[in-house]
Design a protein that fits this description.
single chain, 507 residues, mainly beta, 4-stranded antiparallel beta sheet, 37 strands, 2% helix
Length: 507
């Protein structure tokens, strides 16, 4: 492959978007603004239009973890993008003209939109960020043509709703459980799947028991996988990965939908590598747990009980009020964070970027104040796992739970995966190396330094009969700074500057 073109995105912030290519045009949101959207000629990189609205002067104060946007959505001639001031916008895909905008929430109270919405039927569906600010999570659906709200479903049950009793007192009002990442849609079942974030605040004494004997205070629908009816927003089923989460093990990671041959049956599954260190295979129709296995070093829970679906915790690794839990693995960034994994039908394997890091963590008392961080926690994240690698790109068999192969990386925060029908898998790293790997063996076949760190997945597309691969890159800022010396190594590994690079494949 040869580099065909490169386009600067005009920002030194983290670039976390996957490009979307529609009818020869590439759409990329960028941290410059950070509500800007570029429309580029997918063959040449020439700018067709740019959407660059003005945002309030103070919006940065209520954004948790870096000024980033992870993508846009498309339907019926419109581009849909969420902004960090918690506004959802529809743009004309040909001209970039703003067709409508609606406030999803009030940004000053800790809300923001950091990931692409989902377009289904005549709806555009979005959640929002804010779990670190003590907001109450929800999923909201709007009409694509007008921006009119169709339904809104809270993830944390209120007074009189089933599951409210799993929250101590009024803690549900600031309970987190936000939906800040991407959804998956099954048209046959008419279900849309989203994961929810940590319970808020991280300090569990505010919302239940301060021990591993969590009893009835499981904080329902936080750190969970939910399935919603697309037409009504009703929660059809819910599975909680981390009851009474005190580690910030968000359950938001993407769910891959695949029909797998398990035993003598073909099972409609949802595959999820959760931040808590367990890889879940679930029946996406019923929500029934098929399997849950460790995929990275995990010590806070020994296993997941198949009957109850509950993790079996080790008391020593649950932080308590003013009491440290030491060397908890994985740390709060997770065994895998939001960087997407990919599934190959050819190999039957999942390909995912993983972390090899642990933490010390303790609960602290903190009073809730609207619009401010609400963590009730103290932590040290700069603790490496065993070995000399902080990250590993892994090929994993979701049926057997075995690792097929792995590529160890010095640094964490690897880029997301992309598999192709040519038997390849692509991913990048914080140093800016884009790699093509033999999907069956793990042999690195090609490596190209794009000049700055890669976090998201590449994409592949056709333009005038030629195949291209494109990736967005930009040095990581935000969360790596929480990691002390390790975080500084991630930042130092990459120059500043956001770019998109496209490669042309040989005929």
């Amino acid at each position: 492959m040869r580099a065909a073109w490169i386009r600067s995105l005009g920002s030194s912030e983290s670039q976390e978007a996957t490009p979307l290519v529609i009818n020869g045009t590439m759409y990329i949101p960028t941290s410059s603004g950070p509500a800007s959207v570029f429309a580029l000629n997918a063959k040449t990189g020439v700018v067709k239009w740019r959407y660059e609205p003005e945002l309030p002067d103070d919006y940065k104060a209520t954004v948790c973890c870096g000024l980033a946007n992870r993508g846009v959505a498309y339907a019926n001639g419109r581009i849909f993008v969420g902004r960090l001031d918690a506004i959802l916008v529809a743009l004309d895909a040909k001209t970039g003209e703003e067709l409508w905008s609606v406030p999803v929430q009030e940004y000053a109270k800790g809300y923001s939109l950091t990931s692409p919405p989902t377009t289904v039927k005549d709806l555009v569906i979005t959640g929002f960020s804010g779990g670190e600010f003590g907001v109450r999570g929800a999923l909201q659906a709007y009409k694509q043509d007008t921006g009119e709200l169709v339904w809104k479903t809270y993830t944390i049950p209120g007074t009189g709703e089933p599951g409210n009793e799993t929250w101590k007192g009024d803690s549900w009002k600031t309970g987190g459980g936000t939906i800040w990442y991407v959804g998956s849609y099954d048209a046959e079942l008419n279900l849309i799947y989203y994961g929810t974030s940590n319970a808020a605040p991280w300090g569990g004494q505010t919302r239940g028991h301060d021990s591993s004997d969590i009893g009835e205070y499981t904080n329902k629908h936080s750190a969970s996988q939910l399935a919603f009816d697309v037409d009504t927003g009703e929660i059809v089923w819910s599975y909680q990965m981390t009851p009474s989460d005190v580690w910030d093990y968000d359950g938001v990671n993407e769910g891959i939908l695949a029909d797998l041959k398990i035993g003598n049956s073909t099972v409609p599954t949802l595959l999820k590598a959760d931040r808590n260190g367990f890889f879940y295979v679930m029946n996406r129709k019923s929500g029934e747990l098929v399997s849950a296995r460790h995929y990275v070093l995990t010590n806070w829970a020994s296993h997941v009980d198949k009957g109850s679906g509950m993790p079996v915790e080790d008391e020593a690794y649950r932080p308590q009020l003013d009491k440290w839990a030491r060397n908890v693995c994985p740390n709060l960034i997770g065994g895998k964070n939001w960087q997407p994994m990919s599934y190959s039908k050819q190999t039957g394997l999942i390909y995912m970027p993983t972390f090899n890091m642990c933490m010390d963590i303790a609960n602290r008392d903190q009073e809730f104040k609207e619009g401010n961080f609400f963590l009730a926690s103290e932590f040290d994240l700069a603790i490496a796992g065993p070995g000399d690698n902080l990250g590993e790109f892994v090929a994993y068999d979701p049926i057997t739970g075995e690792k097929a192969w792995g590529i160890k990386e010095d640094l964490p925060f690897l880029g997301g995966a992309m598999t192709t029908a040519g038997g390849l898998v692509f991913y990048g790293n914080p140093a800016g190396d884009l790699k093509a790997v033999n999907a069956r063996t793990g042999e690195i076949l090609w490596n190209f330094p794009v000049g700055t760190g890669i976090t998201q997945s590449p994409v592949t597309y056709l333009a005038d009969g030629k195949q291209y691969i494109a990736v967005v890159a930009g040095r990581l800022v935000g969360p790596p700074s929480f990691f002390g010396e390790i975080g500084q190594r991630v930042i130092d590994a990459s120059p500043t500057g956001g770019v998109v690079v496209a490669f042309e494949l040989p005929n």
